[in-house]
Write a structure and sequence with these properties.
Blueprint (H helix, E strand, L loop, with lengths): L1 E6 L2 E4 L4 E9 L6 E7 L6 E7 L5 E3 L7 E6 L4 E6 L8 E7 L18 E2 L3 E6 L1
Parallel strand pairs: 2-11
Antiparallel strand pairs: 1-3, 3-8, 4-5, 4-9, 5-6, 7-8, 9-10, 9-11
Length: 128
């Protein structure tokens, strides 16, 4: 079993930055994906970014590309989501998630059903 705990959310003005953290405990494996998703009120959960744990492969949603960087610290079992130039439309609850098994085809990283374990989420609010 893997437990994920997100932190780092908060209220920020448009144009500002936040760094979200996702700390994992329990068993982790190399090459499993760790993804960030977000869900705004009244909207479906959407993919933000993902990284291959230990491998460094990263993928991003078009809506955040160039503004967001995902990175991992294997020693701390933590994945980070650095978000810059935030916009009001980035307001959402942000969730991190990971899969039970390694996935070498990055096309699966974009899909929520790929992931078996989810954190409780952290709120990000961007004011205009």
């Amino acid at each position: 079993q893997v437990q994920l705990v997100e932190s780092g959310g908060g209220l920020v003005q448009a144009g500002g930055s936040l760094r979200l953290s996702c700390a994992a405990s329990g068993r982790t494996f190399s090459s499993v994906p760790v993804g960030w998703f977000r869900q705004a009120p009244g909207k479906e959960r959407e993919f933000v970014a993902a990284i291959s744990w230990g491998g460094g492969t990263t993928v991003y949603a078009d809506s955040v590309k160039g503004r967001v960087t995902i990175s991992g610290d294997n020693a701390k079992n933590t994945v980070y989501l650095q978000m810059n130039s935030l916009k009001p439309e980035d307001t959402a609850v942000y969730y991190c998630a990971t899969a039970r098994r390694p996935l070498f085809n990055r096309s699966y990283y974009y899909t929520a059903t790929t992931y078996d374990y989810w954190g409780q989420g952290t709120q990000v609010t961007v004011s205009s």
